[in-house]
Every structure is written in C-alpha cells, then in structure tokens.
Write a structure and sequence with these properties.
single chain, mainly alpha, 2 helices, elongated, NADH_4Fe-4S domain-containing protein, 0% strand
Length: 51
Amino acid sequence: MDAEVILRELGPDVLQACPVGANIYAARTFVDSILAERDAVNDDLNFSMSP
C-alpha cells in the first residue's frame, strides 16, 4: 500500500496518529494498528448482522 492510498482510505486517523512531516512508512506501526482496529470493528458488525 502506498502513502497516497493510505491517506485516502484512512485520512484523518493517520494524520492524527502521525506527526506532521513524518515519513508514512516510518509510521507503519500506527497505520497497522488503525487497520487492525477497523478490521475488528468490521468483524463485529458482520457477526452481529449474520442470521
């Protein structure tokens, strides 16, 4: 995933987690944690919507 895609998809979450001027690749830990959190939320929603 490149920086443009990350910022487009996660926008404000990444900007809040990464200081201004930070290299997006150096901040991968933050991005990975945001993605994991979103996956967990989506999994919870999908589970609650299953019949």
